[in-house]
Prior knowledge:
With 135 residues, chain A is α+β, with helices and mostly antiparallel strands. Chain A is built from 3 helices and 7 strands. In chain A, the strands form 2 sheets. A 5-stranded antiparallel beta sheet of chain A has the order 1-4-5-6-3, covered by helices on one side. Chain A has a two-stranded antiparallel ribbon with strand order 2-7.
Amino acid sequence: MVIHTYQIRLHDTDAAGVIYFASILRIAHEVFERFMGDSGLELGQLLDTVPYLLPIVHAEADFIAPIKLGLRLHVQFSIKKVGVSSFTTRYEFMAPTGQRVATAELVHAAIDRPSGLKTTLPEPLVQALKPHLEV
Amino acid sequence: MVIHTYQIRLHDTDAAGVIYFASILRIAHEVFERFMGDSGLELGQLLDTVPYLLPIVHAEADFIAPIKLGLRLHVQFSIKKVGVSSFTTRYEFMAPTGQRVATAELVHAAIDRPSGLKTTLPEPLVQALKPHLEV
Amino acid sequence: MVIHTYQIRLHDTDAAGVIYFASILRIAHEVFERFMGDSGLELGQLLDTVPYLLPIVHAEADFIAPIKLGLRLHVQFSIKKVGVSSFTTRYEFMAPTGQRVATAELVHAAIDRPSGLKTTLPEPLVQALKPHLEV
Amino acid sequence: MVIHTYQIRLHDTDAAGVIYFASILRIAHEVFERFMGDSGLELGQLLDTVPYLLPIVHAEADFIAPIKLGLRLHVQFSIKKVGVSSFTTRYEFMAPTGQRVATAELVHAAIDRPSGLKTTLPEPLVQALKPHLEV
């Protein structure tokens, strides 16, 4: 598990006064990007240098309590599953009080760029993901 | 079932060359807003006039095929479930070829604004939703 | 001049209850994309087929009156200037009452993709823009 | 002058492979929100507690060089002008090489919430802004 922080910005909110729901999934992906960068696998570099993509094939989120402008979220990031050609990341969003306010899961597949077909997860990625597998 | 159309805009895409995954959930919600407007329940008016909110408590999406800039989506909107205090909307995104490229579901709960607690779905909303229930 | 319409969606707004300022520039660009499509110059096709890009080198917007969720904007699109290697588009956002609520301008430059340098505006683009030049 | 950092995320980019232009204005506003928080004027708290709003009445940005996914921007934040009822913030975006890749300016007005009319800038805000005035 890795913990990141994120403070809710005006852009994340909507006229109902709280977070716009899809923003939580964008924030989850930002946490994933930070994790990848910390693992030596910056997405920007991957796009330029490797023959695979890691598109999201499934995304979901649950909303438990209102998330207001300025709230400082603690995001617990973990890996739920590492499969042959896909992996599942999990995000728990906690308020400073410790209350869980939302959760999210993203499933990424490894796609071979030339063919557009599923491919096995590259070994450096598997090595980066495995230490964070939930037990 | 109601069918809406949406053409993928530059803002919806990312540097991987296709739709940014969370955009599909935003597009789903735009279709919901159009449905509500067509049903005489404009979200902007509701925010100003009714004592309830309809926040999303669960959202999910599946991605089946790449969705590129400029693609004209046909979005089939239907109601999957109408419960006591929540309802589930479903979205099927089709390419002009008829291929299904993505699906999404959003679960909205009715929340009493003064108390912040769940409340029963307002009758005008139930009347708007029921004709579009999947069978 | 071409007139497009756009209804403000929840995603466009923020917790202050009105449009998030940068959304007006995104909406302007969506109007530009519609104009280009109507002119036979779909951005998605251009990206795949032509050796130039049309990045924005300057953007600005003025906000005159609050823009609320659900407001149906009429967007007057015109061309302010066609230069050698750049052009300026202009957007006037009107409420249904006729009140002007915001304006925006976007300056696009033509960039040769192989070299990354400025290039002359392609002739088909000039032909599409000129009929909409302000007088 | 205050320097903040921001790394370009996938969500900030578009299918042309670089930053979506309006993202630079959103990033500018995030830097403003951080500045306000550091000054004891969190936007989320202001929305709940003060009788004024600080909407943007003018926004502009210039783009000097391509901004790619993963780029770590240094953002130099300064105050260009403090007027009676409005103020202008300025943002210079630098690559790690020191190259200036974009600039932005945002003009905020102080609006009295009950009346919706312009009002004088609150004194605590003036005190927070003045030390960062450009000379």
